[in-house]
Amino acid sequence: MLIVNGELEGKASEYWQSYDKPVATGYYHQGRKEGKWDTDYKDTRGHIIFKNGNIIEKREWFLDEQIACSLTIGGTSESIKWYENGQKRSERHWMSSEFNEYLEGSVTKWYENGKLESKGEYSNGSRTGKWCYWYENGNMKSEGHFLPAPNDENSSSLPRDYKIGKWIDWWENGFKSEEGKYSKNCSKYGLEKKIGIWKGWAEDGRLEYKEKYVMGKCLELYP
Asked: Which domains are present in the chain?
């Protein structure tokens, strides 16, 4: 590393207390960190990317937990986890601020055999839009839509989201287990309300019941 016109210039390494290896290695330009800096501290590896001395991306790999996290400027973060066999386990995004951190954007999970477990979107920490769930054998488990629950600062224990519209559940063998619709309006406790005709099937595909709901209340049964 050189001093040019009183400012740091060129390759540099940083050390932390008694750690015997550099914890960060990169370049200075006109006294500011610039470009990619590689980081290495105990069981954590990663890199930080600078532009005009400001961090625009930070990525870390926690080797013992097989987790990779990245933090980009603006508070958007990404987390990726793997199983011990190297198969990706989950991938999610979130937003963070000085006082809060919540899931935001797409979230995907996989089984250890590589097949999808679930996939959907988050908005401000709540599930929203279409969500799909699968069994480990690859067959569909359930499918439907979520809507974020109304915010209530005095009721933090209430659900953050609820089911709306048509939902379908399947048995692991591929036969339907239940099908029906939820109201777009949840109860005051943030719970779903079944509406219309609901059908249920046995695991062998036989129709077991039909129920009629009006705003969450079952009015008729059809054996």
From this structure: 1-62 (no CATH), 74-222 (3.90.930)
